[in-house]
Amino acid sequence: MTDMSYLDGNVLDGPLRELFAVDLSAATGRCESCGTTGPMAGMRVYPHAPGLVARCPACTNVMLRLVRAPDRAWLDLRGATFLQVPMPADQPYPRPL
Ligand SMILES: [Zn+2]
């Protein structure tokens, strides 16, 4: 018998494509280390690492790392509890399958 309680990761493609297509400058993130919540624009970004490193303005915990290569990118959000992204209210909310 097949376990039908989950779907494969392909179902994430549409919702994540929608999420990453919006303007993230208004997104809000919460620092995993100290709990400070604030706009992405408030992070301190250090561009001289092998990529971009964004730190919490309150405790300097690394909240985001973004490394870009010619054919791919790596996004590491381990230092953030969440990233809240404003979505256009006039678009239909995609329902899970
Ligand atoms: Zn912090």
List keywords for this structure.
97 residues, binds zinc ion, mainly beta, three-stranded antiparallel sheet
Can you describe what's shown?
With 97 residues, the protein is mainly beta. It has 1 helix and 7 strands, in the order H-E-E-E-E-E-E-E. The chain has one helix at residues 13-19, and strands spanning 28-31, 37-39, 44-49, 51-55, 62-69, 72-76, 80-84. Strands 3-4-5-6 form a 4-stranded antiparallel beta sheet, with no helix packed on it. The longest helix has 7 residues, at 13-19. The model has no long low-confidence stretch (mean pLDDT 86). The chain binds zinc ion. Zinc ion (ZN) binds next to loops.
Describe the structure concisely.
The chain has about 100 residues and is mostly beta strands. It has one helix at about 15-20; strands at about 30, 35-40, 45-50, 50-55, 60-70, 70-75, 80-85.
